[in-house]
Design a protein that fits this description.
Helix content is 28%, strand content 23%. By secondary structure, the protein is α+β, with helices and mostly antiparallel strands. The protein folds into 2 domains: 55 residues, no CATH class; 79 residues, Response regulator (Rossmann fold). The strands form 3 sheets. The chain has a 3-stranded antiparallel β-sheet, with no helix packed on it. Helix 2 packs across helix 3.
Length: 136
């Protein structure tokens, strides 16, 4: 790629009005100390993938601690009884709408508006109203 050719990365305008889904993220204990240690060591906070991985390992470690004999059934049973706070929030597996063993988290719809990522749904959490149809 030529140094002058930015390709897809033209800056914020490339994502103009793009809509994405996500979950609300506020760091919770446990994990804040590790987050701070990571930030000091690498001079940048961990991204959401790191937080998701940390939360996942926290859930697995908790289930294994509660499993006396580590068989597939015992680990599955321990995971089914999980009820703990992770760096990304609570984890408790439930069944609903013909789905089983789900960690039901609220979803957000976000949209890039005027160079800023805004929450557009649900309405009670929205920071801006969604722009649709996209005319640009």
């Amino acid at each position: 790629m030529d140094k002058g050719d930015k390709g897809l990365w033209e800056g914020p305008s490339v994502a103009l009005s793009c809509i994405d889904a996500g979950i609300p993220v506020e760091l919770n204990e446990p994990g804040l100390v590790e987050d701070q240690q990571f930030t000091v060591r690498y001079k940048t906070p961990p991204d959401h993938y790191g937080a998701e991985a940390y939360a996942g390992i926290t859930v697995i470690a908790d289930a294994l601690k509660r499993t006396k004999v580590p068989t597939a059934k015992n680990i599955r049973d321990a995971l089914a009884k999980t009820n703990l706070m992770t760096v990304l929030g609570p984890v408790k597996f439930i069944s609903y709408h013909n789905k089983s063993q789900q960690n039901k988290l609220p979803a957000l719809l976000m949209q890039w508006l005027n160079g800023q990522l805004q929450i557009v749904w649900p309405q009670n959490m929205a920071t801006k109203k969604a722009v649709y149809p996209i005319t640009q």
